[in-house]
Structures
1.
Amino acid sequence: MRKVSVDDKEAVLELRSNPIVNRYIDRDPMQTLDEASDFIQLVLRGLDNNDAMSWFIDLKETNRLIGTIDFWKIDKYHHRAEIGYVLHSDYHQKGIMSEAMNAALEYGFKHMKLHSIEANVNPDNVASRALLEKHGFVQEAYFRENFHYNGKFLDSVIYSLLNRYK
């Protein structure tokens, strides 16, 4: 896991334009290097302003970007943040995101002093829900048609994890 770099735009475009990666994210896939550059600048601004914490996940053997994991929607007053993550489809079900999740959760609770971490998941994303539950997240809510994307109202499942490092 490492900090984002402006040199990552091709890899970011590949990751965020992948239809399998985007299947449950409910956003338009990236289409251009300019969009990837804009995304990288957004991530860097979030880091600089202390509004977000983001890591890029590289494959150890090749240093190839294969995923991201981050905290955003950070509520400093309430010591809460939302976690988000994506992983290239070639690396699903290999334990990589679980390893990244362990590191991110430890950082969030121990160093950022978060009290709770939330995850907002598409109900059909069984793998993501299983990952969260494996790491102790508990389903807190099921919101019906609370998200509008591409002309449709979609459901969301909200998970939460309280600080286990107290």
2.
Amino acid sequence: MAITNEIKCARCDRKYSGVRSRCPYCGARRIGRGKYTEDSDNAKGKMLIGVLILAVFAVGAIVLLMSTPNQDDGGQQEPEIVDPTPPDNYIPHEPPPPPIITPEPTIAPLEVTSVMVTYGGAPLRYGNEFTQSLGVPIELGVRVEPVGINVDVVWENNSEDIFTFTQVVGGIRLEGIEKGRGQLVVRAGEKEHVVTVVIN
């Protein structure tokens, strides 16, 4: 069933397709539009088929245009709407661990290795004993090693009936109040020096 109209040949009076310029049977040239055949019973059917084909093309074109993303917004598609509620298996991100701070090396505190009573900056002549006249004061100092260590120095008088002392810068001032022998103790850290004081 052809959609195009058929025409009659002017020479052989046979029908052929209207798209041809010559008669396929006798070869006669078509003059002008030729003689069109009268509408047959199938003309309405042909028209209906043509309309249906056009409708299918139109629907296809509309569907194609609707499915193509809109390029007017610079090619960006509509943002996807995401549900803000987390899923049941959601594991929150843990905060990053704190930076590791390397402590500065600590220097072990120095310990007192020795403590010694001095006179005039030098050790006592007899080490652990000295003699002093009654009523004549004497100034005594202390030497703590290692030199420069920061430590408290404590002086003690175990014989308050023999001598007394008062604190002065760098040591003590000792004075005999009774003839006899007594003990003077100086402590620094864990070390101590015991000196016998003879008052005559």
